[in-house]
Amino acid sequence: MPDPHRTRGSYAKGIAKREEILERALEVVAREGMRGASVRELADAVGLSQAGLLHYFDSKEELFTEILRKRDEIDATERLGGGEGDVREGLRRVVRHNSEVPGVVALFSRLSVDAADPQHPAHAFFLERGEGLRGSFAASFRRRQEAGEISDAVDAETLARLLQAAADGLQLQWMLAPTFDMADTLDALFIALAGPLTRPAEDTREP
Fold first, then answer.
1. pTM for this model (two decimals)
2. Does residue 182 contact residue 170 with C-beta atoms inside 8 Å?
3. Residue ranges of the DNA-binding region (predicted)?
4. Domain over 4-195 is classified CATH 1.10.357.10
5. Domain-by-domain residue ranges, the chain?
6. Measured between alpha carbons, how far is 36 from 27 in angstroms, rounded to an integer?
7. Pick from 14, 11, 8: which is nearest to 48 by CA?
8. Are 88 and 41 in contact (CB under 8 A)?
9. pLDDT digits over 100-157, tens only?
10. End-to-end CA distance of the chain
11. CB under 8 Å to 145, separation ≥6 — which residues?
12. 32-41: buried (b, 16+ CB within 10 Å) or exposed (e) per residue?
C-alpha cells in the first residue's frame, strides 16, 4: 500500500519544481524571446533534460501558456496590487514593465493569435484572462462613473472591452516600431475619458 505521506511529499515537490521551472522560464523568455527560448534552453536553465522538462507539461504550447499565467500572477501581486487600488495606476505599472521585457510581449501576442483556435492549449487561458480583466476594468469604470469622474454615456462593460483592445493593440504597434511610450499612450485614454463630461445629445435638448 502506498505511503500517503510519501505521496503527498512527492506531489508537493512536483508542484514546487513546476513553479521553479515557470519562474526561470519566464526570465529566459523575457531575455531571449519566444524564438530564442527553445525547450532545450529552458530545460538547461532549470537543470533538466528536454524530456524531464516536458514531464511537467503536456506540450511546448502548454508550457508557454503556463509561462504567461505565471507572468499574470506576478503582475497581479507586484504591479496591480492584488486587484486592489486604482486600475489606471496598476495598468500603467504593468505596461511600463512590459516595455522592459519584449520577449514576453512577443510571446503573448503570438500565442493570443494561435489561441483563436478552440483546440489550442492556450484557448481557455485567454478566454478566462479576458473575462477577468474586463470584469476588473468594468468595476473600476463603474465606480468612477458613479462618482461623476467620467462620463456614463458609454456603459462600463463596453469601456472595459475598449481598454483591453487598446492595451493589446498598443503592444502590437510597439513590437513593430518601439519608438513610443506604451504606458503614456495608454494613459492618454484615461485622460480623454476624464475630459469635459458631456451628456448624450437627447439629454441636452430643450424641452
1. 0.80
2. yes
3. 38-57
4. yes
5. 4-195
6. 12
7. 14
8. no
9. 999 999 999 999 999 999 999 999 999 999 999 999 999 999 999 999 989 899 999 9
10. 83
11. 151, 152, 156
12. ebbeebebee
